[in-house]
Each structure stands twice: as structure tokens, then as C-alpha cells.
Prior knowledge:
Two copies of one chain form a homodimer. The first copy, chain A, is built from eight helices and ten strands. The first copy, chain A, is of the alpha/beta class. Chain A has two domains: 9-190, HUPs (Rossmann fold); 207-285, Pantoate-beta-alanine ligase, C-terminal domain (Pantoate--beta-alanine Ligase, Chain: A,domain 2), CATH 3.30.1300. A six-stranded parallel sheet of chain A has the order 1-4-3-2-6-7, sandwiched between helices. A three-stranded antiparallel sheet of chain A has the order 8-9-10, with helices on one face. The A-B interface holds A 14, 18, 109-111, 115-118, 120-129, 146-147, 150-151, 154-155, 157, 176-177, 179-184, 252, 254-255, 257 and B 14, 18, 109-111, 115-118, 120-129, 146-147, 150-151, 154-155, 157, 176-177, 179-184, 252, 254-255, 257. Strand 5 (122-126) of chain A pairs antiparallel with strand 5 of chain B, so a sheet runs across the interface. Chains A, B: Pathway: Cofactor biosynthesis; (R)-pantothenate biosynthesis; (R)-pantothenate from (R)-pantoate and beta-alanine: step 1/1. Chains A, B: Its EC number is 6.3.2.1. Chains A, B: This is Pantoate--beta-alanine ligase. Chains A, B: GO terms for molecular function: ATP binding; pantoate-beta-alanine ligase activity.
Amino acid sequence: MAAVAGEPEVIRDKAAMRAWARRRRAEGKAVALVPTMGFLHDGHLSLGSVAAAAASASGPVAVVVSIYVNPSQFAPTEDLATYPSDLAGDLRKLAATGAVAAVFCPPYLYVRAGAGGSGHETWIRVERLEKGLCGSSRPVFFRGVATVVAKLFNIVEPDIAVFGKKDYQQWRVICRMVRDLDFAIDIIGSEIVREADGLAMSSRNALSIHRSLVNAKTAALNGNNHSQQIKDQIVQTLAEAGGQVDYVEIVEQESSVALERMDRPAAICVAAWFGKVRLIDNIEIQTHHPDGGASI
Amino acid sequence: MAAVAGEPEVIRDKAAMRAWARRRRAEGKAVALVPTMGFLHDGHLSLGSVAAAAASASGPVAVVVSIYVNPSQFAPTEDLATYPSDLAGDLRKLAATGAVAAVFCPPYLYVRAGAGGSGHETWIRVERLEKGLCGSSRPVFFRGVATVVAKLFNIVEPDIAVFGKKDYQQWRVICRMVRDLDFAIDIIGSEIVREADGLAMSSRNALSIHRSLVNAKTAALNGNNHSQQIKDQIVQTLAEAGGQVDYVEIVEQESSVALERMDRPAAICVAAWFGKVRLIDNIEIQTHHPDGGASI
Lengths: 296, 296
């Protein structure tokens, strides 16, 4: 994408962010939000391009990328302090895309505890979709994600928000929250960006997971819709590659309900440990009913 | 208040409501929301006037009253089906105030459950303030209130919202939610409207509660800041009047943390049973530090 917008405006204050977005709206632009935790790679950068493209189809758009490492989605056992960051590098990469009008990088977003227990205490839970998959080993993760995203929505007041489908469960949780709480925001799920060899763009992912998912999809499209057989194959493939599966689940795409048979649009979601690194990946499969009817 | 606005516009659809509010904003008006469950009395009607007055101080305002009996704040043991309603009467009363531009009365607000567990599943909890007081005997109540109010905020997108301070804990829960989730909405707590004899405007309230609260306030301002003594006196007064106290609590105003001594701005909150009717009331007391310094 050619650099046309130049340097994005860097905004650190909530009120200034909201005022900026309202000015863009008053100018007749749609506002598109891309929430990130920074340390950006090409997968993130593609989200901004998706936001610009999706919105510009219906008129001018101002893309806002937020960079904020959200403490509430880390458990006490998880290492928030060592989460990587590189704000200067992030700003340089975003400027180079030419697609980003503003970067929102607040130093903090939560009220700190004061006297009388007055700290942050409001939490949003998406009670079914937050369970299972990554929610099983990270019980506070989606509560933290839903809550910080709602805060960002109320600060930026975007018309559009873009989430990567690499974090499949997160994307579905956000879609469900937006529906249930009536946010006036279109959520766009951006396709996974992969390296030439198929590796999902992430600092922690493994080619073997992707290969196992592609093989599973091929098997499913060739008629094997038995979820357990497919899952067993993935577990075995990853074990042979030196990984240990945390979970592999085959779920109905929208509801994340487990499927015994892939007889409707399905997603295979995998998390696995390779040494001390936990990797996730997923693949969507548009399977059909065995009677040959339309997909649901 | 003189009738100037005439008949309010009656809106039942979410998208139509949001579009209506956005048009008012585009005209340069602030939008003020007054959420109710209908069956309006003068206490409710005063909220609309408060909204109009508060907003008009800084420019023109469009007041929206919502009427929706929120099922999610009723427990299965509580009687949602017999909650009183009188929409025609409500509309007549609101038209007579001349202060209300629109009435939002949706037939439903929650997604119904479909296949694959796709019904409403997103809940907002204000984890400390929802506990104690009315939350002790009504454990899902404030979860339901916070969630439906967030939905109404996202549908109407108001600049201002008005809540009656008769429902003291509810008002504080909403203030905390708005702070924690960064809603761009000014919350106004409207003072309790009372009959000439001091009875709070409610179909279910009792003069004896109000009298006991006024006596307690007098005692506190005369120097008795021992919460337990004040509470014992209220329990005894209400027992003599034939009531049975569900709770009487003396709390710090903003945090709702219990106070042993009323040495800072306090609220006394009471719930009591008179026969099969549960009544609530409260009073605020601006007490001072015993050292004669400024109040906190």
C-alpha cells in the first residue's frame, strides 16, 4: 500500500482520542479501530489495510491503531512484565503503511485502586464462548479482552473494528459481545496472514501446526467428517514434530460448540506447547451436510 | 413544567432509536436518557425534567425516556409476569410534562436462544458495589441492571443519563460502570421526590422508614456518629411500626464500603418487609471529621 497518509498522529490521552475520532466523524469519515498490544508484525499491519479497504468501500475512513498491553488479560502466573514492546519501531512500521491516521497508545487505561476499594471493578464476561479452547488454560483471559475492548470502543467510538482471525476464539467473543451489548460497530474478521511456507505471522507459532491443519482440512473435504479421527491425527502429527498438544477442538464456527461430525461450517482450533512456548493456530472449513444440501 | 414539546415520538426499534438520537445530535442537541421500567409516577416524571434542566444549562437537549421491563434483573423466584405496566398511561403522563421528545419502548432487547447455544450470554458485573445491600437478597439484580443499561447506552448513545437516587445502590453501580468502561456519558443522580408527608414516591414504600432515616440523620448531625447505635435505633423504630428490617447499612457514599463511624460523607440504606411488600429508602448525610476539618 502506498504511503499517502504520512505520519500517524500519536495520541495518549482518552479524552483527546475521543475528541479526535469525533472530529473525523464530523468531517464525514468512518472511524476504524484496530486494537493491538504492539510489537507489530506484518499480520498486524494487514489489519490496518483491511480496515482501510473495508471502510473506503463505503466512503472515506480514518484508521486508528491502538497499542496497549492489557494487564487484565494476563493471569498472575503469566509474564506481563516481559511482554515485548517496541513503540518506536511500531510507529515507523505504521507510518510506512500510509493507511493509519492515528495511533492510540495510552500509558494506562484502568483506574487504580484508591481508598475505599475504588479501583477498577467492572468486568464483562461472554459466558459460553469464553469457556473451552484457550479459555480452559487461561481462565481470566477473555474477561480481560472483552473488558478492554469495550473500553477502547467507548473511547474511540469506531464505526468499524478489525480483529485477526488467528485469535479465533477472541474474534468470536468480541462478535458476541458486540451483538449482546448492542455496540453500533461492524466487526471485521481479518484472514490469517501467513509466510510463504504457510507459517502464521506470529513471533510464536510453528509450521507443523499449520501443516497438520491443512492436512486435516484436506481429509475433511475428501469426506472424513469424524472429528475424533481428525483430532487424533493432529495430536499424532504434532507429537512427531516435538510438540505437546494443549487442546485440539473442532467447533461450529459461530457458536464454538464442539462438533462430533463436521456437517456444518467448522473451525479446527489448536494450541500446543513446543518447549516453553505455547502456540495457537486454526483453520476454517466450509463443510456441507452429508445429504448434499446447502451448508448451514 | 409547561407542555412545549407536545407528544413524544414513540420508537420501538433499536436501529430507529439510534438513528433518531444521531439526528438530534447532528442538529446540535445533547441527548439525555432516562431509563425506566414504566408504570410511571411523579418520581419518574421528575427525572425527565432533571434531564432537560441539566442539559439545557449547556444548550438544547432531546430527552428520551426508555420503558422496558428488564427480565434479566428478576430472579426466577421473583415475579416478572405480574410487574405492573400501563404504557398508554405512561405516554399520556410523559406528553403532559412537555419535556420528553421520544419514548423508547422496545418489545424485547435480548437475543433469544437459538440452535447451538446462541442466546444472550454477555454480562457486566460491578463486582464490589453489586454486593451487599439489595445485592445480598437479589444476587442477579445488579448484573441485570448493569447489562441492560449498557445496552440502552449503546442503542441511544446519550450524552447524559439520569438515575433516581431512591435506588441508591443502582445509581452507584451505574456510575462505577460508566467510569470503568469509559462510557462518554454524564450520569446525573436525581434527588428523591417525596410526598408532602415525606413518603418517597414509590408504589411500595413506607413513611415509617423515611421517619426513621430523618431521625437518624438528626442524631448524626447532633454528634452521634456510631453507626451501630444508629442502625439499632432504625431496626427498633421499624419493628415498632410493624416492619421487619431486611438490612440497614451505613456506607461511605461513593464506595458503598460500610462505615463504623460516620466520619465522612455517608448514606444510610434500608430495606424492610411490611407484610409481603419489600420497601427500600435511603438518606445521605454530609458528616464531618471529628477534628473539625473539612469533609472528605
